[in-house]
Amino acid sequence: MAETKQVVVKIKRQAGPKEPSRWEEFSLNWRPSMNVIICLRDIAENPVTSGGQKTTPVTYDSNCLEEICGSCAMLINGQARMACSALVDHLDQPIRIEPLTKFPLVRDLSVDRQFMFDSLKRVKAWIPIDGTYDLGEGPRVSPEVQAKGYPLSHCITCGNCLEVCPQVNQHNQFVGAAIVSQVRLFNMHPTGAMNKRERLEALMGPGGVQECANAQNCVKACPKNIPLTESIAEVNRDAWKQALLGWLLG
Amino acid sequence: MRQPKIIVVGGGLAGLMAAIRAAESGIPVDLFSIVPVKRSHSVCAQGGINAAKNQKGEGDTTDKHFDDTIYGGDFLANQPLVKRMCEAAPGIIDLLDRMGVMFNRTPEGLLDYRRFGGTLYHRTAFAGATTGQQLLYALDEQVRRHEAEGRVKKFEGWTFLSAVIDEGEICRGICALDLRSMEVKTFPADAAIFATGGIGAIFGRSTNSVVCTGSAQSALFQQGVDYANGEFIQVHPTAIPGEDKLRLMSESARGEGGRVWVPRNPREKRRPKDIPESERFYFLEEWYPKYGNLVPRDIATRAIHRIVYQEKLGLDGQAAVYLDVSHIPREILNRKLEGILEIYEKFLGVDPREEPMKVFPGMHYTMGGIWVNGEDQATNVPGIFAAGECEYQYHGANRLGANSLVSCIFGGGLAGTSAVKYVKNLEKGATAAAQAVYESERKRQEEKNQKLISQEGSENPITIWRELGDLMTEHVTVTRTNKNLEVAHAAIQTLQDRYKRINLSDRTRWSNQTLNFARELENMLILSRVITLGALARNESRGAHYKPEFPDRDDANWLKTTRARWLNCDVQLSYEPVDISLIKPRARRYDAAK
């Protein structure tokens, strides 16, 4: 019988935030259209390393498995990307899998991205409607505005843009490109524009849009192809305009 | 004065809408979700949301939407609330529009509408092919605002274990598990709304997300909350097969002109583009001239099965047919369908703008679910409400495409409003419940965890789960026979025996996903029996439930709702009449105008 083709995977393991980390290697049976999630499931069913050591299943975040929920971001061969769309046949082996490094570690490949959700609160990333009772139709929106806004509304809050940003580090609380881009989206909407000022102000303090140092890594790492650098440039311009206006008017 | 509290379990469209309604009325909400709510399964909905706005001048009305929904559901849905939903739908679109959803627009700046299955009208509002994502985000943003302003408290990363029910059989809160610290804790509340979504994991592979296990529904069922029409499972005609999941290819592909076909010659070797029109078999268009590619899902799915298994015309002898959009101009595809075409391209490496997609039916949705009373989303246990896919009442025997999002938002809103009314009228609130009620429930759940973590055994939970999924997919989806259903039911019981001997490969007390999965699996096994027994008993064919031995709908004997109850640790079925007071049942056919 021909030997089954093997997939070799190396995973950085860590039992908890304060535990030491270590690498474990696994050898798995190759199948067509295998992705990193299938590798992790194979390990869960038979958690034994290549060296024959029994271990625990790998803890990781996942949900939709079609790159739209934003859960399964991790470092795969050093690249921040979604595990569900990382196809084994397109990856060099051994496949090295690590957790994102810019967020607090929970366990193994699972991290806590609450910072991003808190940042969405900080910039008031919503349309402040009066209530959910019947108040008639929304404002007219031109197809041009829709065509600009729709791609921005695809952000899955995966955190990859923060992971690759040199300005997101221990000394700097930059909210990251994803959040700046959300501000652009809400400021573009006819109703959202009424609170434009508030959102821009929220982006002017420490961690705000001025922290961007234009490395432009974010736009390359975004799995949804969001024009993040364009968003940062536009929001930055608007923020400056507002600051200048404030200064002129005293 | 006592301050009531409402708990919402589940952060998809229905749960978020319920939370917004309750928060708006000034009642504090605790919102529980396994994943951050922005990552809920509603995000996967693609094609759109139905509302009879008649914006294309076709003479569409909410009554026609109502009739299409009842007819599409093969007359199994109780009618009055479905009518209310269809009447509310245009207002729901307005609300979402006000919340800033980036719907596709007409040149005049109005919302654009497209066609979907089971209707002849352009009734589906859409945001590209990622409508669910856009809608979920809109509600997520509104909830975040309520959260920032202190009306909603989120418990993300917690999973529901059980309801806290007192000696008067009234729900007084919930018991939940923190998925990081693995702490079991009870939370008092005057009412609990469940919006815990689908049950795809019971079928192993489906179009559903990982969290859609039906575990919460099953746990409630075992605590005395009835479950209705479990046997009605929707298999979506067009999904991309995959080992980890079946990725949905939205009905909107056909709504925008996509065509389903196979080569007429089963030994065809040419590339699909080189096969002339005359040698292609557009079987849906030939068999159903009036609705063509937009027949309802149960019909399209059975047609594809017939092509593959009886006519032996599957592509290269495999279980697959073509879903072709390559004749549609690129600009239109990119503007209206980009989201799904990207999924196909990313996971299969083929550009569907150039080459037809290869698809096959996959388990997608449960029409059945928690029994609710037809008026206010209340279950048979006071204090417990349900909304969204986890309850049964809007779609009858088959759901029409783009009706799920509207039913989630309508049902969720109604559940929120109803729960507020309920807690305000409650004589004694949760604060009056004895502490012992909470403590004994917490202990019961903690002991379950302890037992699972410490027991020695030989069975792996994932292996049992895979076998369950294979069984359910083979015997309890598209074509059902009583013999196979009996085989499946016996096999599930064997799996339940094996479950007693499972061995957890992770016994730690921090972020232990194996323990949580083992708990979900136990609940999945019980719910799979409810589904299988319901199917076994129902000797007719109606909507998605198809038995060749009983090929016709049998209104004389089976125009009734299946109601499953947990009695003495076993599934008991009973039946109740369907409310058909508004539209008289008639034969359902899609080869001609109805």
What is the CATH class name of the largest domain in chain A? Mainly Alpha
Give the overall shape of chain A: elongated
- By CATH, the topology of the largest domain in chain A is Fumarate Reductase Iron-sulfur Protein, Chain B, domain 2
Helical residue percent band of chain B: 25-40%
- CATH C-level of the domain at 237-361 in chain B: Alpha Beta
Number of H- or I-type helical stretches of chain A: 8
Could you give the distance between the termini of chain A? Answer: 83 Å
What is the makeup of the main sheet of chain A?
Answer: 5 strands, mixed
In the CATH hierarchy, what is the architecture of the domain at 237-361 in chain B at level 2? Alpha-Beta Complex
Instruction: State the domain count of chain A.
Output: 2
Report the mean per-residue pLDDT of chain B as an integer.
97
Question: Can you walk through the features of this model?
Answer:
The complex is a heterodimer of chains A (250) and B (594). With 250 residues, chain A is α+β, with helices and mostly antiparallel strands. Chain A has two domains: 6-111, Ubiquitin-like (UB roll); 114-248, Orthogonal Bundle (Fumarate Reductase Iron-sulfur Protein, Chain B, domain 2). Chain A contains eight helices and nine strands. In chain A, the strands form three sheets. In chain A, strands 2-1-5-3-4 form a five-stranded mixed β-sheet. A two-stranded antiparallel sheet of chain A has the order 6-7. With 594 residues, chain B is α+β, with helices and mostly antiparallel strands. Among the domains of chain B are: 237-361, Alpha-Beta Complex (Flavocytochrome C3, Chain A, domain 1), CATH 3.90.700; 437-555, Up-down Bundle (Methane Monooxygenase Hydroxylase, Chain G, domain 1), CATH 1.20.58. In chain B, 36% of the residues lie in helices and 17% in strands. Chain B has helices at 13-24, 62-72, 79-98, 131-148, 215-221, 252-255, 283-287, 297-310, 330-336, 338-348, 404-425, 435-454, 461-475, 482-499, 513-537, 555-558; strands spanning 6-9, 29-33, 49-50, 113-115, 122-125, 152-156, 158-165, 171-178, 184-188, 191-194, 227-228, 233-240, 247-248, 259-263, 280-281, 321-324, 357-366, 369-370, 384-386, 560-567, 570-577. In chain B, helix 1 packs parallel to helix 11, helix 3 (79-98) packs across helix 11 (404-425) and helix 14 (482-499) packs antiparallel against helix 15. The mean pLDDT of chain B is 97. The interface between A and B is large, with 69 and 70 residues.
